[in-house]
Fold this sequence. Notes:
The structure is a single chain. A five-stranded parallel β-sheet has the order 3-2-1-7-19. Strands 9-16-10-11-12 form a five-stranded parallel β-sheet, covered by helices on one side. A five-stranded antiparallel β-sheet has the order 22-23-26-25-24, with helices on both faces. A hairpin with a 2-residue loop joins strand 13 and strand 14 (225-231). 26% of the residues lie in helices and 29% in strands. Helix 1 (12-24) packs parallel to helix 8 (303-317). It is α/β, with parallel strands linked by helices.
Amino acid sequence: MTERLVVIGGDAAGMSAASQARRRRGPDDLGIVAFERGRHVSYSACGIPYLVAGDVTDPDDLVARHPAEFRERQHIDLRLASEVMAIDTERREVVVRDPEREYREPFDQLVIATGGVPRRPEVPGALALGIHGVQTLEDGIRLLGYLDRHRPRRAVVVGGGYIGLEMAEAMLRHGLDVTLVDAAEQPMRTLDPDMSALIAGALRQEGVTLRLGETLEGFAASGGRVTAVHTSGGEIPADVVILGLGTRPASDLARAAGIAIGETGGIRVDRRLRTSVPGVWAAGDCVETFHLVSQRPVAIALGTHANKQGRAAGINIGGGYATFPGVVGTAVSKLCAHEVARTGLSTAEAIAAGFAPYGVVTESTTRAGYYPGARKIKTKIIAERTTGRLLGAQIVGEEGAAKRIDALAVALWHGMTVEEMTSLDLSYAPPFAPVWDPILIAARKAAEALA
């Protein structure tokens, strides 16, 4: 008898799981049905700001695999515009609603890959036209259509995290006057204050007006369309508003089904992505994962994690063995010519995790100083005072700066000390680095501070 796998969610985690399960088990052995409530699947959500900015000219370019490929090549019954409304773990069924009907679909195994829910402010006027989130590809297409139809002059970005930075650049690229509002005293609150201050300076350098330390209180509208943003600091005129307030795990469906939810609000899974209910798996932004440095549960929404988790779940469903051990919290972003990256713990996070951290900041260049195109880079290393173990790192610079975080992430993953890092055999040639790479300079200074 053919076993039946149902997948809820058609983006990174869900379709990775479905594809890996299919690779190991043929259609006569495993029937796969995937439900996606939107009209696009398997696309790069991280590319949406660059679609809006114009770096990507066709939304289709963000799609890694089209629905027909899943249906015809992999024999996956992919159903678009189909939202799963409930999970019945006792009857082993999901309740599905599409534009024409509501029905039940049976499953033997289930993958929950519902992603994240964008945080939308519960303030007056929040439903006015011209207020946009940018979580899905459809959101990006809708925003581009609004910009084209209404030709706004003034944009307000609410939220100073990664999406806020990227969308501020996108609005600048459209020639708009841009104001960024954030309740924190500095943007990029996942960085230490001294490093996030550099981002604030970069924003101002690019012409963005900052309204920091101001809380959102509401929106004004005329004719149903947004005209201003109200904050604790006053009114800001706006023709278009971009919300970049982050997401939370979309775990409500699992919670209602009696599936265990972790302390972060994400679905609790083990290293093989199994939930508390046998035969039910979960992957992607909806799950709670494990931070390998803090040794604490975290919920971090990133496509890299979603793809790896989906792959591991699919391998296990297909009869193989795979795990997702956890994360160290590596992320990068950019604002025009300015790049920002981080991995591991910030100083505040390290203290909260029970460490006694110290930090050092070094300034260098991305290439040999005499080589054309050398750009400034500031690197901060956070280490444990008693052992010198690397706990985290942050980088702010220009072209060629941010991806250096990957070497620091590898060192962090393997529990290296800053003293051990000083001997890393990193590449050198004048077009790519000074003879002492910025990472080695930072590690050496951190080791010396410990001595």
